[in-house]
Design goal:
Layout: H1 2-23, H2 31-52, H3 63-70, H4 72-101, H5 108-118, H6 122-141, H7 146-149, H8 161-187, H9 194-211, H10 214-232, H11 235-259, H12 269-276, H13 280-291, H14 304-310, H15 326-335, H16 351-359, H17 362-379, H18 383-396, H19 403-427
Keywords: Membrane, Transmembrane, Transmembrane helix
Transmembrane segments: 6-22, 34-54, 74-93, 124-143, 163-185, 242-259, 355-375
């Protein structure tokens, strides 16, 4: 009963925080989308758990998830983590409010629109996007079995080695780039012409069918929301459209289980939401693993996966003991395997579980400090760096740091360095 009351208080506090943020919106700040995403993936699951309990997790495969979700100590620590996050968000929103009082005009929208209009490499970027689109279509046409990619695939079907290799080395890299191309085409369509809208819808449907990754669909819609928020400058103008779009995506998530016969594994929509959209189960699992290292093993030593994230560009031939991405260790822990086992699929855990696995319970606070710090940093940057940086961190709240996002992060770092360099030169 006490835990239910605590959950109810946190949900109510988070909801009030979010409403006040929307109501007092004056100009765009990097922390806004991150708070909204955090509430979706961390707070909404608490609200649902108050009424439905824990989801129907497949016990024969994910028993470690079951243990983590049933453990009351883990739940208490998770609730305190969410409460701490909301307190830090409240402080940050009040700090922003004080800063905005000194601003005589809201020029963030104008800056964004000017950036889009005046970007000197605009035609080159759009041209590259169309090349990626053409290459993606061509890659399906010349595939060993094109119809395999042009239909929703039954999860029980065992694919041939040739298709598996082709998917790994051709389809997956190209369609990662296609996500960026779709977003870039949306970004540079300043007039939002009907032809461009229809073309992007076709590309999204094509990507969804071929790639089969539902999380990517949510990511694309989320970034579109961020772009439209900057273009329109008003949450009220775009809220109805995106409430509908996110609702349609949620319906598709559930329908996908029937289309691909994944429902034979598990028919619980609540669990599907926990696995693919919400992140509370993943954070609670990392907390439980930290509390019970004798039962669940994820990392071999503190900071192991962080070393990989920071120095991923060093060839393994030079660094023989180079760690692997966190998601590999995470999935082995979920499945109860050793750190040397090979896992062929991933779940989209965010960076919050990674902080916990690397730094213990202290990692919860460190992850929030990192979030606030990096958002403040991007908030001070110019439009391109600010937009891309905000989108990246919001995305990492729901997805893992894959190779595509590493490229995006390196590009953002380049933008930030060159921006600072130009500033120093100009000052001289």
């Amino acid at each position: 009963m006490i835990m239910v009351a605590l959950e109810g208080f946190i949900v109510a506090y988070s909801f009030i925080n979010l409403i006040l943020m929307i109501k007092k919106y004056k100009r765009f700040h990097s922390i806004y989308p991150v708070i909204a995403v955090f509430d979706l993936v961390m707070v909404v699951p608490l609200f649902l758990e108050m009424y439905f309990g824990i989801p129907d997790i497949p016990r024969d495969v994910y028993m470690n998830f079951v243990r983590a979700m049933e453990d009351q100590t883990t739940l208490l620590i998770y609730c305190l983590f969410v409460l701490l996050a909301q307190l830090m968000f409240t402080y940050e929103l009040r700090r922003i409010k004080r800063l905005d009082r000194s601003i005589t005009r809201t020029n963030d929208i104008q800056e964004f629109l000017l950036f889009i209009q005046d970007f000197k490499y605009r035609k080159i970027v759009v041209g590259i996007c169309y090349i990626i689109v053409a290459a993606s279509v061509f890659s399906v046409i010349v595939a060993p079995n094109p119809m395999y990619y042009l239909t929703f695939r039954n999860v029980h079907i065992q694919v041939s080695d040739s298709i598996a290799r082709y998917s790994e080395h051709v389809i997956l890299p190209l369609f990662d780039l296609l996500v960026g191309a779709i977003i870039a085409l949306k970004l540079f369509d300043s007039k939002n012409k009907i032809g461009g809208v229809i073309f992007r819808i076709i590309l999204i449907v094509f990507f969804t069918v071929v790639n089969g990754k539902r999380t990517y669909l949510m990511i694309i819609i989320g970034v579109f929301f961020l772009i439209d928020l900057l273009k329109q400058g008003s949450l009220k103008k775009i809220a109805p459209k995106y409430v509908f779009l996110f609702g349609m995506v949620a319906v598709y998530f559930y329908a996908y289980m029937y289309i691909t016969d994944k429902i034979s594994y598990n028919s619980d929509w609540y669990y599907e939401m926990q696995e693919y959209i919400f992140r509370s189960m993943h954070v609670r699992f990392s907390i439980y693993a930290t509390l019970h290292p004798e039962k669940i093993h994820i990392l071999d030593y503190p900071g192991q996966s962080m070393l990989y994230s920071l120095f991923f560009f060093i060839p393994r031939a030079i660094w023989i003991s180079k760690p692997y991405p966190y998601i590999d260790y995470y999935m082995r822990g979920v499945l109860g395997l050793s750190s040397l086992s090979n896992v062929t699929y991933h779940m989209p855990a965010s960076y919050y579980p990674e902080f916990v696995s690397n730094f213990g319970i202290l990692g919860l606070a460190l992850s929030l400090i990192f979030t606030i710090w990096i958002m403040r940093y991007f908030d001070k940057r110019k439009t391109a760096c600010k937009l891309l940086g905000t989108a990246l961190i919001a995305l990492l709240n729901v997805y893992y740091y894959n190779d595509l996002l590493k490229i995006v992060a390196m590009f953002i770092l380049y933008l930030c360095i060159t921006e600072k360099y130009r500033f120093v030169i100009g000052r001289r």
